[in-house]
Each structure stands twice: as C-alpha cells, then as structure tokens.
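We now fix the convention by which a protein and its fold are recorded. The integers have meaning only within a learned vocabulary of local backbone shapes. A record is reproduced here so that you can trace the correspondence yourselves:
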Amino acid sequence: MRLILFTLIAVFTFSFNSYAQMSMPDITKLIHHDNGNIYASDYLIIVVYDEFNNAASAKAVANYLNAEVIGGLKHKNWWQISVRADSLEKLNQIKDLTLEHEYVQDVIIDKINKY
C-alpha cells in the first residue's frame, strides 16, 4: 500500500472557526499525468492579497467559480476551493479563470508526492 504525503502541512476537516486546516484530496479522483506527477483534481489553493484574507472573501472567490471553500491556512493567506477537473489541462483552465478575480494573488495546483 502506498503512503501519500501531501504537499500541505495540515490535513484536517475545515471549519471557519479554525482557519488552519485543509481538506484531503479525494484519492479516487487524483490526476495521474503523463509527466509522472499526481495532482489533486478536486480543489485548488488560492492565495489572496492581505486585505482579502478572510472567510467572506474566500467565499466570494468560491462563488465566482460556482464552488465552495473547503479549507484554509489563514496565516499563509491560503484558501482551499473545491473544483471538478478530470485533467491537468482543465485544472489549468480553472486556475487561469481564478487568477482573473481581483482578490486572488496566486493559485496553486496541489502536486501529490507518493512514497
């Protein structure tokens, strides 16, 4: 059995009261790309500008994507947004759309490391 080590530090169930937790990817929906890398297909991590680092702003970005906030590491300005993608190309399209939002500084596609 393979142990999957996630690139994120905290992997727990998210609560808006905590802001220091991220949800795990659905391991049945991982994208195994031809380049040999494995990616989470069910969320993106958005990095927001300091003035937008709050749950309301994260929800606004999620609404822009017809998605929902499923996690966050507030001390890093990271918010985890649910998405649906079946390929790395689709994830990149969603990433590009997300980067158009005024609150968003960067978007991270989570690359999963296996051991």
